[in-house]
Amino acid sequence: MSTTLGIIEGFYGPVWSWQERKQLVRTLAPHGYGFYLYAPKADAFLRRRWQEPYPSEMASELSEFGRFCRAQGMRFGVGLSPYEIFNCFDDAARAVLAEKLEMLDSLGIDELAILFDDMHADTPALAETQADIMQWVRERTQAEYLSVCPSYYSDDPVLDRVFGQRPPAYLETLGRRLDHDIQIFWTGEEVCSREISPGHLKRVSEQLGRKPVLWDNYPVNDGDRMSRHLHLRGFTGRPAANGAYLSGHGINPALQSVLTTIPAITLVESYRQGPQYQYAQAFRHAAKEVLGKELADQLHADLLVLQDTGLGRISEEKRQSLMHTYDAYDHPAASEITRWLAGEYQVTDEMVQTQ
């Protein structure tokens, strides 16, 4: 499989433990996942409070996790969101950013991603400014891989509605002004794309002057509405032919770290099998591998309720019955389901607005 697959921990809401992250890596590295980008929205030291240094304990945990990923054959990166820095990239901002880059280098990261997504821009030459910031960062980071998430990372008009109208020729300008070895993230025709086609990726590659890294927002289930559903089914709408137009394919995982490995494994199968791929069959195989036969059969039987009906529309009686069913299994995935049924994974609008 030529396309490098990876995990982009980029969701809003509750954070994983280091143990959960390690287990995810242990499960997916043998399937060929090649990179892990640590960028949870809840890590304020990478986002709203990016100017502040990491507390030493957190820094050492992050560094240790990076070593763990490399030992498993995955490159390790960090996604830094220097909040709205492009609106005022002055000497003070440069000084703080230089300190942050030095600190991230000290962790021994392989990849540095600068994430300009989900922020308000009020600078006229947005693409030019962001390209200048990336060039400045490139001269100061020791990370081998450098990537950027644009402010407008999809064709989706929701971005213009929430963050202001995108500047004309934004992607073309950014692509033209960025050094060719800087990778650019893209989510597809929508923020959470139902389908991503070779034709679409070919067009975006031409606009950017390089193949994008797909930031795939499945099986992520953050946000008020999505967190009421478990995203378990195999990947669909990602044909293997996309690989010709991608420099990488990272998936933004679900809030449930064990359950997310089921769809993650199906993506590998989608690339491997090409036109022979069958998403429901791939789900059955992956679920059996992750959960064992008995729990996999149970999950398959409840798939419609857990993924499609969701918490908002399950009757109290059904919810209690499901709690009882999954309580009987001694498996971390069953525990994720009972915690989800108890409302522990609910992501509120306030979380999304403040993280």
Question: Could you characterize the architecture of this molecule?
Answer:
By secondary structure, the chain is an alpha/beta fold. The protein has one domain (5-289): Glycosidases (TIM Barrel). It has 14 helices and 8 strands. The protein has helices spanning 18-28, 56-71, 91-106, 126-138, 157-163, 170-177, 198-208, 261-273, 279-291, 293-301, 303-309, 316-327, 332-341, 349-354, and strands at 5-9, 33-38, 75-80, 111-115, 145-149, 183-186, 213-216, 248-251. α7 links the parallel β6 and β7 (213-216). α4 (126-138) packs parallel to α6 (170-177) and α8 (261-273) packs across α9 (279-291). The two termini are 36 Å apart. The model has no long low-confidence stretch (mean pLDDT 95).
